[in-house]
Structure formats: C-alpha cells, structure tokens
Design goal:
The chain has 427 residues and is mainly α. Helix content is 52%, strand content 6%. It contains 18 helices and six strands. The chain has helices at residues 34-38, 74-80, 83-92, 99-111, 117-125, 132-146, 156-182, 195-204, 223-235, 243-252, 258-269, 277-288, 294-302, 323-338, 344-358, 361-365, 373-382, 390-411; strands at 3-8, 13-20, 28-29, 58-61, 66-69, 72-73. A three-stranded antiparallel β-sheet has the order 1-2-3. Strands 4-5-6 form a three-stranded antiparallel β-sheet. It starts with a strand and ends in a 16-residue tail after the last helix. The model has no long low-confidence stretch (mean pLDDT 92).
Length: 427
Amino acid sequence: MATVTLINNETNQKFDFDIIECTRGPKAVNFSKLFETTGIFSYDPGYGSTAGCESTISYIDGKKGELLYKGHKIEDLVKKYKFSDVCKLLISSELPSNEQESLAFDLELRHRSFLHEGLINLFSALPDGAHPMATLSSAVSVLSTLYYDHKDMEDEDDYQTMARRIIAKIPTMVAFCYRNAVGAPFIYPDVKRSYVENFLYMLRAYPHQRLKQTLNGEEEITPLEVEALDKIFTLHADHGQNASTTTVRNVASTGVHPYAAISAGISALWGPAHGGANEKVLKQLNEIGDVKNVDKFIERVKDKNDPFRLMGFGHRVYKNYDPRARVLKSLKDELDKKGIKMDTHLSEIAQKVEEVALSDDYFIQRNLYPNVDFYSGIILSALKIPTHLFTPIFVIGRMPGWCAQLLEHIKNPHARITRPRQVYIGK
C-alpha cells in the first residue's frame, strides 16, 4: 500500500500514513491515527480537505461537473426514472426492475403518507405565519416520539420501514405546514394519486373537492406539472457530504433516534448559504429589476468593498457548470414551450445575468458557474409553489439521500461518534 511521509522538522521524526485508493476521485491520506501517532492534529476550517466517512451513495466530480447516484449519472436518472424510483435506489441500492415494481413502491409510499392524528394537533399549536422550515423541523422531531421503535433497528426490514415511512410522510408534512401557515384546512392524501401528484393535490385542493378542474375549466394538476416537480425532487435527492447531510450523520453518530437526526438536518438546510439559496436568488432577481441593470450589479459583485454577492453562482465543490443547473435550464425552456409559462421578466434577467457572468474574466477565473439554485426558483414559481415553500421542497427531494446516508452510518460497525478537535487560541 502506498504511503505519505510526514516529517516533523522540530524533532526530525518521520511518520508514515497509508493512502486510500478511491474508486472515483482523488486519493485520500488516512490521518485517523494522526494525533495518536504524532501528538499533533490537522487544522481544516470548514472541512474542505477532510473526509469524515466512506460512502457509496453519491459522487461529485467538481472539475468535470458530474454527479452520480449509486454510479448512475444524474442526467440519465432524471430522463429515465421517477423520483420514487430514485428513492428506492438510494435507500436499497436497487432501481425497480420493471414498471410493476416501480408502481408497487410508489403505492407503498402513498399508503404510508397519512400522518398520526396526534402529530396533526402539533400544527394547530404553532402560530399562523410560522416559517414552514421551523414547523417542519419540529414536526419531524415529534415523529421520533410516535415511532420510537426506530431507535433500535436490528435488520434490513427495520431500516427500510424507517426510511420509507419518513419519505412517504414528508410531502404530507410540508403540505400541512403550508396550509397551517396560511390558515387553510388540511387536505389528506389521496392514494389514487402518485407520490408527486399527491403533494400538489394537498397544496391546492379544497375540502371535499374531487374534481380535476378549477372554476375556469383548467386542469387542477397537469401531468406536465407533476413531471417537472418530479425532476426537481430527483435533482436534489443527494449531494455528497454537504452541510445538512453531514449534520444528519454527526447527530446520528451519538445514537439518537434517526428522525431526531433528520430534524437537525432540516434545520441545517434552512440557511440561505445552503437550501435557502433558491429563495434568495428569486429575491435578488427582483432586486435587479430589469435587464438593463444587470451590468451594474455584476460590477458590484467585482467590487471588493461592496458586500453584494451574486446568489445562485459558484459552488464549494463544482468548478464547472453544475450538472443539476444544466438540467434545470433545459427544463425551464422545455416547460415554457409546452405551456407552463415562466415569469418572462425574471427569466430574461436570469438569462442576461448568466450570459454576462459566463463571459466575464472575473467569473471565469474564479470558476463561478450557475448552480442548482439559479433556475429552480423560477421553475417552482411557475408551478405555483409559494416562495417560502422552496426550501421545504428541497427537504422532500433530499429526504431519501438523508435516509441513505444515515443508514450507511448506522450499519458501519467501525463508525465512531463525531468529535472534531479545535485549535485553542484563548487565554
């Protein structure tokens, strides 16, 4: 096995550390025994050069702009499979082998989508106007009291039940969070509708309404809307060791109930530097206001004395075009042609921002390309999703990834409680 030698110039001591060969991407140096061996530890703020786990779930090649789930390219999964199929892939490592198997999994999720009546009482106890992410994190935490048996899972059946249960219930919970926030009556799931269609139904329907048409004769939920939202969920399903996923793993490492760990992940995702970014992109496009103002705002980005930051551009990992952003850009254009009209004003501003930025040396030299948040907000708005629900939509999409990551950690017999060191600079 290849090694790396660390030399302490003060003592002239040499220490060898094994190099780990990864199946994809750069090699890693095994520094797990660095402190025990040398008496010193590494300093890596933000953990940008540190791997905290081994994983088989998703892989990102930042230089190539490539994303894979379980070895499958994201572009292929979006094109060939439904989101519920991708859920099955992430939590069980297998895609449905045929249409019947795909439908059976989707049907299982539909039947698990109903909420415990005790949980529903929680929503009425929270104030109207509460942000859905705050409510959602609280509601998922309550799930740990209703399904306490998941605290001690013993076999694959237990693991799958835990994951499928929360994947099934999270769209219902998001819909209830929204309706509670606006003071509207709750709409229960309809098992005749698919996983994604059910979510739109619970957002839009009125009590006792079973018609598929609104008063003006238009379809209440169109297949094109369902397909578009399905693709958005798939694009968000997993993304390596990002802040919220790492939070889920870190909290799970203490042996806590899995739903408590996921609740913590939801709180981590809420931040504007993470899952809340698409909401910020939309606000910023409105702030720019007009195509003719784009150049002025681009100049503000380049002014080091101006705190203005262009949202939806650049990524901690990608140094190329985010493959999810590329899919979303094509999806936006396709939906516009097929009848789901984008906000023309905002779409034109976004197009101009991308055009100017990608031809500007400042952005080129810094590898600043559109990321997944840049176009997702425009599409979600066209799907009649309220802005404050953008991040909860992200939660629905990311749930199978969080479950897969959590299970991978729990099943690892060598996993340890997360305990980073610190560089102490106090008195």
